[in-house]
From TrEMBL:
It comes from Perca flavescens. Keywords: Glycosyltransferase, Manganese, Membrane, Metal-binding, Signal-anchor, Transferase, Transmembrane, Transmembrane helix. Belongs to the glycosyltransferase 6 family. Its cofactor is Mn(2+). The chain crosses the membrane at residues 7-28. Mn(2+) binds at residues 195, 197. Pfam families: Glyco_transf_6. The active site is at 288 (nucleophile). UDP-N-acetyl-alpha-D-galactosamine binds at residues 105-107, 110, 195-197. GO terms for molecular function: hexosyltransferase activity; metal ion binding. It is found in: Membrane. This is Globoside alpha-1,3-N-acetylgalactosaminyltransferase 1. Its main location: membrane. Binds 1 Mn(2+) ion per subunit.
């Protein structure tokens, strides 16, 4: 009898242990990427909690931006200056203290852009957050020594040189996929992909963080009909989008999200472009075409206005109240290994 009870007791104990640890395993985010937990402090991503006693302006249901739309037709925020309060946003996201990876490529002559990008990034990009710049380059010696803020680091990844710029821009998908698997997965909660030929001019903060955030391309955000978007139109390519479909045209120069969601998307762009290469076709705007295809059928959870990537080539219209980061004017023919466009 005693023996029988103790056997039941052991079985029940084992079962409860299983349930307990199973629960912790699921809680720690091993089930779905959107349930990730910051490993350092156990804070769940996108828990919109805030400390008590914070002082900030009362939000209004009546006043806000009226000159632009600040919500998509799938009810995701469309972020413009004036649609968020940085005090509230920072309070929410600082509680989690996420680790943010920024992946940039500086291959060939593009190392000249590193200094301006990094120095301005230290002034304006997610200030007071933990940031690691992953610099993929074929020339480690040309990575400048920049004074970084607390909790911010640089990690250099050496990759081969390239003969064609198209090879570099598409290669970003391949090398990022490989390096997330090898290294970044254990070091970051969010990941951004960015062009290096840009300079930050103003706050680019935690309001940009979400499961998947994409930026409206400055050239097509206002009056362009969907059949005029520069999507890939040849059915032979994996990036093909028919003329009567499309939401927006997104830039491939700034995009970000949860590490695992970004991994899935970067890998998608990589494998789709590999398929295209097998079929002897290259999408019209390389990875940007594949990115736009993905985001049409897998909607981003935040859409960022062109404030989050403007260009020094263009004048600034009324609805762009602040330029947060801008592409530099460059001599394409001089800076690219196989010349211009
Ligand atoms: C504003 C915008 O929409 N930018 C996109 C547009 O780029 P851009 O015309 O701005 O292309 P780009 O010359 O800046 O190339 C994209 C990035 O690749 C890297 N790079 C490129 C060439 C090279 O020799 N070495 C090197 O390191 C570097 O990080 C650069 O910023 O079209 C490209 C693909 O056609 C990409 O989709 C860019 O994201
Ligand atoms: Mn660029």
């Amino acid at each position: 009898m005693f023996c029988y009870i103790s056997r039941i007791y052991i079985l029940v104990s084992l079962a409860s242990l299983l349930v307990f640890f199973g629960g912790i395993y699921i809680y720690l985010g091993h089930s779905t990427p959107s349930f990730r937990v910051c490993p350092d402090n156990g804070w769940r991503m996108e828990d919109l909690t805030m400390q008590t006693g914070l002082k900030y302006a009362q939000p209004s249901t009546q006043n806000g931006r009226t000159d632009v739309n600040s919500v998509t037709n799938w009810n995701a925020p469309l972020v413009w200056e004036g649609t968020f309060d940085p005090v509230v946003i920072d309070a929410i996201y600082k509680k989690m203290d996420p680790r943010v990876a920024v992946v940039v490529f500086a291959v060939g002559k593009y190392t000249r852009f590193l200094k301006g990008f990094l120095e301005s990034g230290e002034k304006y990009f997610l200030v007071d957050f933990r940031v690691t710049y992953y610099i993929f380059t074929d020339n480690e010696q040309d990575v400048p020594k920049i004074k970084l803020g607390k909790g911010r680091t640089i990690s250099v990844v050496t990759i081969p040189s390239a003969k064609r710029w198209q090879e570099v821009v598409l290669g970003r998908m391949k090398w990022t996929t490989i390096t997330i698997d090898k290294q970044i997965r254990n070091e970051a909660d969010y990941l951004y992909m960015m062009d290096i030929d840009s300079v930050f001019h103003s706050r680019f903060g935690a309001e940009s963080l979400s499961q998947l955030s994409a930026v409206l391309h400055r050239g097509y955000y206002k009056n362009t009909q969907r059949d005029q978007f520069p999507y890939e139109r040849r059915p032979k390519s994996k990036a093909f989008i028919p003329y009567d479909e499309g939401d927006y045209y997104y830039t491939a120069a700034v995009w970000g999200g949860y590490l695992e969601d970004m991994y899935k998307l970067v890998k998608y762009c990589y494998t789709q472009s590999e398929e295209d290469a097998k079929n002897e076709i290259e999408a019209v705007w390389q990875e940007e075409s594949h990115l736009n295809k993905y985001l049409l059928y897998n909607k981003p959870t935040k859409v960022l206005s062109p404030e989050y990537l403007w260009s020094d080539y263009d004048s600034i219209p009324q609805d762009i109240k602040v330029v947060r980061i801008s592409q530099l004017v460059k001599n394409y023919a001089e800076v690219r290994p196989n010349g211009g466009q």
